[in-house]
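Reviewers of the previous submission asked for a worked example of the structure-prediction workflow described in the proposal, so we include one complete record here. The input consisted solely of the amino acid sequence. No template or homolog information was supplied to the procedure at any stage.
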Amino acid sequence: MEDKKSDYELVYRTSALMKEVADLKLQIKQLTEQNEKSQSEIYRLENILACIPPDSLPKGINFNIGSNTLRFKMATVMYVDIRGFKSISSESHTSDFIDELDQIFIHFGEIASKYKLQIVKTIGDAYMCAGGIPQKNITNPIDVVLSAMEMKRYLKELRVTYEQSHRKFWELRIGIHTGPVIATAQGKKKITYDIKGETVNIASRMASAADVEKINVSVYTYELVKDYFLTEYNGITPVKYQGDLEMYYIRRLKPAYSQNRQVGEFPNEIFHIKYLLRQFTDLQELILDKLEKELPKYLHYHSFKHTIDVVNQAELIGYGEGVDDQDILLLKTAALFHDSGQIIGNENHEYYGTQIAREYLPKWGYTEEQIAKICALIMATKLPPNPQNLLEKIMCDADLDYLGRTDFIPVSNTLYEELIAQGKKISILEWNKNQVKFLTGHQYFTDTALRLRKVGKEYQIDRLKKLIKEDEAKLNS
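From that input alone, the workflow returned the following structure tokens.
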């Protein structure tokens, strides 16, 4: 009886333990699901937070997520999945195997640096980098796709060497997605970045859904690069908490942008111009910020607002005159820098502007030939104007476009305020007389400016003459 009783107790204890194990497994499953949901919600909220400008956050509410944490509205993450560990390691020594993978990652790092991408991490046979961090830029989707094409080309060349020695080779899958991320800076001497958010998860998902040696991009990245690359629809894939997401394979550069129209691997000069025009938005933001901060406060006319105006008018008149994209780029860039020399001094500010342009533009991919032409356009704005070619004529007309516009009086008044702030003693009556003299002697050089502003300028001359008569009548009464 005692033996049976002991057996019953053992069975009962075993059953109780099994029930506890089952309960614990259920709790673990529930906690894991809750953790996944919480993590996804954190990513979702972080993505929303990344899209909110800091200056628009409600006062009194602290959304700071760490002093070493940066938020980016638009970054492009590339996730490279390099498979083949088991098959390659089975025929290689471990040290050789690791060295080979290290060499691939080192070369990938060189390519990433070439396109100004931030290397994020390497985990086993996975490699991740991102464009648009830590320096925000509008070209990062293009940069990442170009670097992915170069990485793919490198492994293709490496494959030939392996196959010649009858060795197995790595399988490469690349996934790319563009969206908001939160990046955390780590380290002091050498700063590295860790990024997180749904953008990272989706980039990884794009890699998983890619065929071997294919570059798979999400529909978000596709929309940003489709004008430059030939693509192939790759269906849809379910993404957790996102629903179905469309995917596209990047095949090659479009023929119009390729050095070799048949192959489409290397960008040509036309692509370079298109790229610089797109990048101009970032350059303009940088230089306008510099002008706003560093220009003397008494420059009411030669302010960053005048620079914006001249950039816009240079583009407008340029297209009106039928110039190509190359010349539009030169005109807009020259307009951006034409008054930057005022930071250094008023006298010879055009020359100083060329020096600032020569300092900045090489870092933004402009060639020496382009920079020389831009500097010549800046110097063409020096008064009195004496343009020698069509682009210089466009530049001069853009700089003084306001002379024939309806806002002439308020704009010219800012120039008057600027002169007074510099200690020039001149009455408003004298100023208006000088303006009439200047307007009468001024000429527009392009057909577009003549068509748009000649009548307006004549109207402003008549308007000023009436004001002069009124002021003189008041003085004589």
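Confidence is low (pLDDT under 50) at residues 50-54, 56-66. We consider this example representative of the routine output the project will generate in years two and three.
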